[in-house]
Design a protein that fits this description.
136 residues; alpha/beta; 5 helices; globular
């Protein structure tokens, strides 16, 4: 049975380096060993979202969670936990700052999967006290 991996990213409106990396890597996974899924925390919320559109165009399994504002964090965490549980995800790999913060919290709250945080950013990208603390 293949390992189920969820790539969690927080890509607002562009196709930057992390997004291109995920799209480029998609064709290299061994389907017998891995089932790959994608979730963009900032995907398709009324704005043009090139990354999520690219995932859909390439027929890649894509999930969305609603609410991408700070006051929606509890709902986002709950939706993400439910998604991980319902899809029996084994590994959550995070990409970019917001996805790493949210994914890290979900990883601490859930013992049924592993979380890998891929830091595509520097500490200077996080300029507020609480996110810096959570990121560490």
């Amino acid at each position: 049975m293949p390992h189920k991996i969820l790539h969690l990213i927080s890509s607002p409106y562009v196709l930057g380096g992390a997004e291109k990396l995920l799209l480029d890597m998609a064709e290299f996974y061994d389907d017998e060993k891995f089932s790959i899924y994608y979730c963009n925390l900032f995907g398709l919320h009324g704005e043009k979202d090139f990354f999520t559109e690219s995932l859909i165009e390439n027929d890649l399994p894509t999930f969305n969670v609603s609410g991408h504002r700070l006051h929606n964090i509890p709902s986002i965490i709950s939706q993400l936990r439910n998604l991980i549980k319902s899809e029996n995800i084994d590994i959550v790999q995070t990409h970019l700052v917001h996805a790493s913060l949210v994914g890290g919290i979900v990883g601490k709250l859930s013992a049924n999967h592993k979380t890998i945080i891929t830091q595509h950013y520097t500490q200077k990208a996080i300029n507020k006290f609480l996110p810096k603390k959570i990121d560490r």
